[in-house]
Amino acid sequence: MSPPRRWIGHWAVLGCVACGDAERPRYVTEHLDVELYDGEVLCDGSLEIMDAQVERVSAFLGIDPPPQISVFYGHSAVKDGCGGTWGGCARASGVYATSASIFHELVHAVRHSQGKPGSVGSWLFEEGLAEVLSGFRWHLQSELALPSTLERGPAMLAALPRGEGKFVPEDYPTAGHFMSWLRTTYGDAALVAFLNDPRYLGGDAYEEAFAAHFGLSIAEADSAWRSAAATEYLWSEPCDPARALPWTGSTLEFSDTVDCEAPHTTGPAGEIDAVTLRSHCFTLAQPKMVRAEFEAGGGRLRLMPVDCVDTGELAPEYYDYKRLKGGETQELPLAACTWEVQVDGIAGLTLDFMLRLTQL
């Protein structure tokens, strides 16, 4: 019998509803009813972020969060609920997802609350929106071949009828890239007004709605997007100001505990069931050599550059990811960037650590 989850921040897991040996664990949060398959475990922080994703997407769209969303979590749940080779899906019965797809599918679940599940809008815009809004924390920069070389561009994808077997995996980066371009070019207000337009939601006159809100046809937007010739896009907000780490003179010290039962720890993920402390960040105004001391009885520290000032004068290693194991000390070249700090432990174990950075 799993222990009931305690009150966490602005939400509460109301309890493990079916935790007997013969039944799957089930947790109810403010917005979700999560059933775990395949012996899956979810850290408190993952449940909190999943709940927050529903609120975040709803706020972006200017709507109230939908009623309780059923989530069936695990690879066998996806296989049973989605079929084929899908990595996840959102149906009338709920969301079927794994750690790799949950934030994408929750975008779909919120959108389905605005219409009939499975028939909201078009593949291009709905999958593109789910790609963009699933990037609420760090993801590696995604790269796309020059838009001018793509045969399956936005105009073609917008015309695909809803239903399985039409959108292929290679189309997701295109959809995400095009939606990122629409946001950057026209702003969130115009994009949300289009997405919430009944002509688009119902799918009956989405081209008319697109022209009304953006002032050009989808085919013209396809051409403009190709002309922009952007090859990279980023859809993340890695650094929460509430988790900024301050320097005291030339020194920064940060201590905490990685613990799956704490609201700031997410996971498990990967073959080793890694659990990860919610990211913190620090900023260097000038490139520096920095001594990093990671005092811990295990685990792994990662430092990842974000929002760098690249003058072209520094060696590439100043911008490389940095990795330390527990107990290691290294002198590291760091560029003038905001640096994301991630600390990993192992599910089922707590990891106390101290990170000390000293500018040399």
From TrEMBL:
Task: Report which superkingdom the organism of origin falls in.
Answer: Bacteria
Report the protein name in the record. Answer: Peptidase MA superfamily protein
* Source species: Nannocystis exedens
